[in-house]
């Protein structure tokens, strides 16, 4: 199933790359640009679905663009372009994310960065690979010297005050905080030890289903922002090696309110 997901990710990557290279030659209004990219998202998702459906006609699918397609106990969770804003601006950080769940449990995750030709793959119980190399989370023991990833609120500003409090408390003690713009890749980077930890509010399942399995399979921890297991329900998530994860959690807890944990 990893092989099929990899094939699907490569197919979607071809769609993204073909159009990425054309973006600066086409003259767009903002709205036109947006519609064009939505179309690219849609075509890339369809390319993934065609490959999955051909091999597994009965599996269910949840795609960011086409929504929920019912099926059996297996469900593919797809983000055909994670980092749309970056893609639109020619900022070279975006990815394709494909996960497979069986009866709700994550089994497979594939995240592909076509610009760097980095294919991150995982399946439950067998670790994480980047191309042919085995990955582990970092061994950093505290926030001291840690590099963290995050996502700044950009559409939903209800929790900006809470978020700013978290940022303020975390940034004082780390080596730095990055906002790369593709949550799926942020998780892959935690699995690779490039980031020691990550947190974001308001993610969707397709942003981090593959990434969550990857971080766990690389020896890390993924929880919701109160340290529980409701991250896919709330979209509020912390990931990291176990020590850094716990340190992030401790700094975040004072900034929570009922709206964030409900
Ligand atoms: C977004 C990216 C971004 C994160 C947003 C997501 P999209 O996904 O993952 O890093 O901060 O919350 O919505 O819209 O580019 O697929
Ligand atoms: Ca996304
Ligand atoms: Ca997307």
From TrEMBL:
It catalyses: a myo-inositol phosphate + H2O = myo-inositol + phosphate. It holds the Pfam family Inositol_P. Coiled coil: none annotated. Its cofactor is Mg(2+). CDD domains: IMPase. SUPFAM superfamilies: Carbohydrate phosphatase (SSF56655). The keyword Transcription regulation applies. This is Inositol-1-monophosphatase. InterPro entries: IMPase, Inositol_monoP_metal-BS, Inositol_monophosphatase-like, Inositol_monophosphatase_CS, Inositol_monophosphatase_SuhB. One of its GO terms (molecular function) is inositol monophosphate 1-phosphatase activity. Its EC number is 3.1.3.25. Mg(2+) binds at residues 64, 79, 81-82, 207.
């Amino acid at each position: 199933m990893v092989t099929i997901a990899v094939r699907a990710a490569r197919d979607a990557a071809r769609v993204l790359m073909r159009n990425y290279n054309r973006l600066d030659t086409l003259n767009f209004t903002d709205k036109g640009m947006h519609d064009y990219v939505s179309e690219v998202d849609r075509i890339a998702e369809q390319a993934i679905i065609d490959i999955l459906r051909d091999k597994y006609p009965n599996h269910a699918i949840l795609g960011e663009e086409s929504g929920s397609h019912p099926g059996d106990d297996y469900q593919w969770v797809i983000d055909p372009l994670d980092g749309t804003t970056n893609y639109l601006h020619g900022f070279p950080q975006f990815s394709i994310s494909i996960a497979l769940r069986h009866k709700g449990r994550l089994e497979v995750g594939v995240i592909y960065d076509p610009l760097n030709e980095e294919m991150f793959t995982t399946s439950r119980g067998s670790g994480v690979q980047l191309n042919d190399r085995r990955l582990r989370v970092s061994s950093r023991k505290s926030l001291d010297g840690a590099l963290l990833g995050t996502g700044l609120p950009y559409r939903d500003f209800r929790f900006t005050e809470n978020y700013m409090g978290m940022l303020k408390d975390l940034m004082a003690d780390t080596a730095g905080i990055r906002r790369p713009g593709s949550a799926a890749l942020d998780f892959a980077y935690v699995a690779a030890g490039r980031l020691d930890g990550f947190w974001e509010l308001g993610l969707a399942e397709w942003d981090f289903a593959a990434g969550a399995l990857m971080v766990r399979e690389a020896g890390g921890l993924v929880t919701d922002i109160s340290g529980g297991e409701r991250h896919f329900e709330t979209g509020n998530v912390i990931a990291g090696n176990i020590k850094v994860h716990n340190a992030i959690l401790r700094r975040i807890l004072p900034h929570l309110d009922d709206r964030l944990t409900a």
